[in-house]
Amino acid sequence: MTNDLVVHLARFGGALRARGVDVGVGDEMDAARALALVGLADREEVRRALRIAFKIRIRDWSAFDELFDRVWSASPRTDIARHRAAAMRTSGGGAPLNVSRAVEERETETRSMRGKDSVIGYSPDAVLRRKPFDECSDADLAAMERLLARMARTLATCRSRRLVPSRRRGVVDLRRSLRRAIDTGGELVSLAYRARATETPRLVVLCDTSGSMDRHARFLLAFVVALRRIARNTEVFVFNTSLTRVTPAIASGRIARTLQRLASGVPDWSAGTKIGESLSEFVSRHLDRFVTHKSIVIVVSDGLDRGDTTLVADAMRAIRSRARRVIWLNPLAGDPRYEPTARAMAAARPFIDRLLPAHDLASLEQVLPNLS
């Protein structure tokens, strides 16, 4: 592995594991992506980004800070910044993609070390992240619950470009600092700061629970349930032959129990599908109430429907005209040969901002940046 940044992150992750901190290869991948988005010249910003990406618990903060000061300083930040700049030149500005590819190579290397004398070599989480939902069992769903909670927590740390008053972090707010100086005879005794706001998005999720989605729906709904526990403004609907609002049924407790409650309470679960009729029902009954210019609407479906595609196009047009962004998650899009040629999918495509795969946990991780 020639990627200095990834090698250094792997070394740092190994040091954390040696101190008993729960860090996996997937966390190293998250850390690499996080560093591609922050200012590497700001040491404290790098510290915060790594603490978040590695999901460090409060009880492990002191160990993390000690190792960060000792291990991270072993590689000059200028070398890392130079590596990232070279990656951007190579990809035409797509640094996060190149970093991700490098970390994928790191994951492949560590998997090949299974059976060797290395604690770093094998991570069950890494295998679970790449396991297709249609191959997962109920036991896998239980194991995924912790990973889903981690993913949801990253949504709570998404920062907007909007700057708000802050205490002793961020950039100096000169105007407010000068106003404060009036009370001290013009002397800048204390400075005011501004930092990027942390904003939780407003989500409206429409999930297909028809027969063709049966193998994927429960895992995708588990993802939605985890998101709603962080983004409390999230509204959730499921549809097959009709539309049902299930937000009130999503409560605290185990995700598996929540999904059982949904399956038993939703008519025609795992039956046929009428995408156009269901989306039209949402538009006529719920659009004005739940969707605003701040809302991100997420449709979760494979787009397989033999109904009236005119209804699909009209409903998606109405949703797009009102929402901030429309995202369609399609499990079939995980196949590199996939093309959105199904009739309902083709009718909806002009009104979708992003069509994204949703066939495993790793693909769902890529959805999160689109929600910020």
Find the structural class using helix and strand composition: alpha/beta
Helix content: 40-55%
Summarize the biggest pleated sheet.
6 strands, mixed
The neighbouring-strand order within the major sheet is 6-5-4-7-8-9
Order of helices and strands: HHHHHHHHEEHEEHEEHHHEHEHEH
Question: Measured on Cα atoms, how large is the radius of gyration?
Answer: 23 Å
- Which runs of at least 5 residues are low in confidence (pLDDT < 50)? 74-107, 109-122
Number of domains: 3
| pLDDT averaged over residues | 79
CATH superfamily of the largest domain: von Willebrand factor, type A domain
Written description of the protein model:
With 372 residues, this protein is of the alpha/beta class. It has three domains: 4-129, no CATH class; 161-198, no CATH class; 202-371, von Willebrand factor, type A domain (Rossmann fold, 3-Layer(aba) Sandwich), CATH 3.40.50. 49% of the residues lie in helices and 13% in strands. The strands form two sheets. The chain has a six-stranded mixed β-sheet with strand order 6-5-4-7-8-9. Strands 1-3-2 form a three-stranded antiparallel β-sheet. Strand 8 (325-330), helix 15 (343-348) and strand 9 (354-357) form a beta-alpha-beta unit. Helix 2 (25-35) packs antiparallel against helix 3.
